[in-house]
Amino acid sequence: METKSMHIAVAGNIGSGKTTLAELLSAHYGWEAHYEDVEDNPYLNDFYEDMLRWSFNLQVFFLNSRFNQVLDIRKSGKTIIQDRTIYEDANIFAPNLHDMGLMHTRDFENYSRLFALMSTMVVPPDLLIFLRASVPTLVNNIQKRGREYENSIRIDYLTRLNERYEQWISGYKLGNLLIIDVNGLDFKANPKDLNNIIDRIEAQMHGIF
Q1: Which of 26-40, 142-156, 165-179 has the highest mean predicted lDDT (pLDDT)?
Q2: Is 126 a catalytic residue?
Q3: How many other CB atoms are there within 10 angstroms of residue 52's CB atom?
Q4: Is the whole model's pTM more than 0.70, yes or no?
Q5: CATH of residue 136
Q6: Number of structural domains, the chain?
Q7: Which domain covers residue 100, as residue numbers?
Q8: Of residues 129 and 156, which shows the higher confidence score?
């Protein structure tokens, strides 16, 4: 079906199922998957223990990691599925931390200038898949995967992120967008749920080509 290389990205809040869906789509299509640098991130544990102290360090780490990822994706000539985008860091996570008083204003302004420069050098995904999930769904998924550093994530933090995601996605104009409501779905255990998502992706991709 494919006639050219593509950049597909999966966006969504913490615990929405991005990595799982990227893995399944990578296996189904034979796409190369690029995942968020979580296990090797030197700031995550510290961040969840003391957000104010480590928020800027964490966000710059993610920004740098994803900037390099996007440059590599475009150079590769392959169809690649990416777990989370550079736009989520700048439009959701960093401003949310700043508004919650968990990132100093001078750090946020520095970060924003850095992102503005980087954004002039990256190309948006050909297709963005946004996973919409309620806070109870997010909490359930976070608890099921059992990452120790995520135990301290607060409900109000997830709620604020969800609000920002909805605001961002409602104005997303950078490329093709597919919104999937994942509440009540289990695309890892239920092949029917996964097939329904694949059918919707197929319809979007036919429109792109």
Answers
A1: 165-179
A2: no
A3: 14
A4: yes
A5: 3.40.50.300
A6: 1
A7: 7-208
A8: 129
